[in-house]
């Protein structure tokens, strides 16, 4: 036995997942989401990119260790069009009530790098384990500012798995204060919504920023599951959405479920969010996927493989069901898988990555990989050498499409359905698509073999096929 707490946790959670599987199999899952977040031109966006980056959690200025050249390289190597860019409450509001406009300037500068290359940006208010002030050394949590961290002197013991630090009394207390479960700090959620309003004031009208991910992996402290998600979490999302809409009517708002459980295939009890904007609501669902056995360090092989496949299928159903609930009778809201990733040196990693992309494509979800950091989870080594992940993520996909309904892709091309006339942009890895591909269901407007970008004119209700 390598680590007793790891196995105790695993045992408990396998039981939970099995329980969830039974419950979920008794309900009917929606087929797929047919709605997508849209850019300023009203074109549906298929998100294909990286979380950028985990390094932002611990830099003094809150910015990722990531340059404009790094972005150019990623675009050339993998044809990405999207980023989930990490921002943090501690950087936006480092002192209580004081917004750091200099930080927002620096974020805006990076957003411009993406704008210059045709990307769309989602800003992710990241946190893990509340904030860095949960421990004296500051090297475990990230996200919340020190002034908003109240552990009441309760212990926060740390070990080898960062996620287990969520179960420490001091971490739990910090969250209990934020959700006002203790009744002592109602001002914290207000400041959080104010921080979002400040971000929205800055990026309202910036066409590159298309979405705000309201909180990374929410955690309820002593409130878990239904009590947390349908209660203070839904309330906070509504409050942040209302604050954002005071400044910015157009940027999509993305909500996440409680991460514990949902990431492993369990259902969510989140409530609906009303969007006060004029016109159609712009609320999207942006969950994460980390099957438990892999979270605990296993590969996608042996006995684990079947368990993980089961988790992914279960997770897909639960995602679509929650997206439908958020749609409040108008069908599933757009879905972006905001995080999945793994140490790609593990056995079966390539098959797992493929499984996730194929599942997401068929369910109408964009995918953002965790993460754009150097090393064994990322696309590059720290010396810049490309890793195995680069070729796995360099895959064909429809990028921006008017009236997109669904798509599938393979190494040989893409097929997608549209419901109205307009333009479509498709990415095809240049190394594999050396000649102009064959197209049916649309007219070719342009083909750039160097970048792998194909633009099409689609006449109306069509199934478009692009093949080598
Ligand atoms: C991980 C980083 C790791 C860091 C840890 C704690 O890869 O270097 O020590 O966070 O900050 C998530 C989180 C995401 C995690 C990721 C991988 O949203 O921040 O990054 N993960 O563990 N949820 C499940 C997995």
Sum this structure up briefly.
The chain is α/β, with parallel strands linked by helices. Helix content is 33%, strand content 19%.
Written overview of the protein:
This protein is α/β, with parallel strands linked by helices. It folds into two domains: 4-394, TIM Barrel; 395-468, Golgi alpha-mannosidase II (Immunoglobulin-like, Sandwich), CATH 2.60.40.1180. 33% of the residues lie in helices and 19% in strands. It has helices at 4-25, 68-78, 89-92, 101-116, 169-178, 187-203, 226-247, 259-262, 292-295, 302-326, 349-363, 388-393, and strands at residues 44-45, 48-52, 82-87, 120-125, 209-213, 252-255, 283-285, 335-340, 365-369, 397-401, 404-410, 413-419, 422-427, 438-440, 443-448, 453-458, 461-467. The strands form three sheets. It has an eight-stranded parallel sheet with strand order 7-6-5-4-3-2-9-8. Strands 1-10-13-16-15 form a five-stranded antiparallel sheet, with no helix packed on it. It has a four-stranded antiparallel sheet with strand order 11-12-17-14. A hairpin with a 2-residue loop joins strand 11 and strand 12. The protein binds ligand IDC. Ligand IDC binds next to loops. Ligand IDC binds at residues 54, 57, 128, 142, 162, 216-217, 288, 290, 339, 370.
Please give a handful of descriptors for the protein shown.
TIM Barrel; alpha/beta; five-stranded antiparallel β-sheet; eight-stranded parallel β-sheet; globular; 2 domains; Immunoglobulin-like; binds ligand IDC; 468 residues
| Distance between the first and last residues' Cα | 50 Å
What form results from the Cα inertia axes?
globular
Structural class: alpha/beta
How many strands appear in the DSSP assignment? 17
Ligands bound, unique? ligand IDC
Largest sheet strand order: 7-6-5-4-3-2-9-8
Rounded average pLDDT? 95
Radius of gyration: 21 Å
CATH superfamily of the largest domain: Glycosidases
Tell me the CATH architecture of the largest domain. Alpha-Beta Barrel
């Amino acid at each position: 036995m390598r680590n007793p707490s790891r196995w105790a946790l695993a045992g408990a959670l396998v039981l939970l997942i099995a329980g969830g599987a039974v419950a979920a199999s008794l309900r009917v899952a929606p087929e797929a989401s047919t709605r997508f977040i849209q850019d300023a031109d009203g074109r549906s966006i298929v998100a294909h990119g990286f979380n950028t980056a985990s390094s932002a959690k611990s830099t003094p200025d809150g910015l990722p260790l990531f340059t404009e050249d790094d972005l150019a390289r990623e675009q050339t190597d993998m044809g990405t069009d999207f980023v989930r860019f990490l921002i943090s409450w501690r950087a936006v509001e480092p002192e209580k009530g004081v917004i750091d406009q200099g930080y927002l300037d620096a974020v805006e500068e990076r957003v411009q790098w993406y704008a210059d290359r045709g990307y769309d940006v989602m800003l992710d208010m990241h946190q893990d384990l509340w904030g860095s002030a949960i421990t004296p050394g500051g090297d475990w949590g990230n996200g919340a500012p020190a002034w908003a961290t109240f552990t009441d002197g309760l212990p926060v013991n740390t070990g080898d798995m960062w996620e287990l630090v969520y179960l420490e009394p001091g971490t739990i207390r910090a969250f209990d204060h934020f959700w006002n479960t203790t009744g002592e700090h109602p001002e914290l959620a207000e400041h959080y919504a104010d921080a979002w309003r400040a971000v929205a004031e800055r990026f309202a009208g910036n066409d590159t920023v298309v979405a705000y991910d309201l909180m990374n992996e929410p955690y309820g402290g002593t409130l878990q599951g239904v009590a947390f998600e349908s209660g203070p979490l839904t309330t906070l999302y509504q409050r942040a959405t209302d604050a954002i809409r005071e400044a910015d009517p157009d940027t999509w708002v993305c909500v996440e479920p409680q991460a514990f459980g949902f990431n492993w295939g369990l259902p969510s009890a989140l409530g609906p969010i009303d969007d006060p904007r004029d016109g159609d609501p712009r609320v999207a669902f942006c969950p994460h996927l980390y099957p438990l056995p892999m979270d605990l360090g296993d590969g996608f092989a042996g006995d684990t493989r079947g368990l993980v496949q089961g988790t992914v299928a279960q997770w897909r159903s639960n995602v679509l069901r929650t997206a439908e609930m958020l749609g409040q009778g108008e069908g599933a809201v757009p879905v972006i898988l905001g995080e999945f990733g793994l140490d790609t040196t593990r056995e079966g990693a390539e098959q797992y990555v493929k499984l996730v992309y194929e599942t997401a494509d068929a369910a109408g979800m964009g995918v953002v990989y965790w993460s754009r950091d150097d090393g064994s989870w990322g696309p590059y080594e720290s010396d810049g050498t490309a890793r195995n992940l680069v070729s796995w993520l360099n895959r064909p996909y429809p990028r921006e499409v008017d009236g997109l309904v669904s798509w599938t892709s393979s190494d040989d091309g893409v097929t997608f359905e549209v419901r109205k006339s307009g333009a479509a942009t498709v990415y095809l890895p240049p190394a594999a698509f050396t000649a102009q591909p064959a197209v049916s269901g649309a007219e070719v407007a342009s083909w750039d073999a160097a970048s792998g970008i194909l633009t099409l004119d689609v006449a109306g209700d069509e199934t478009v096929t692009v093949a080598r």
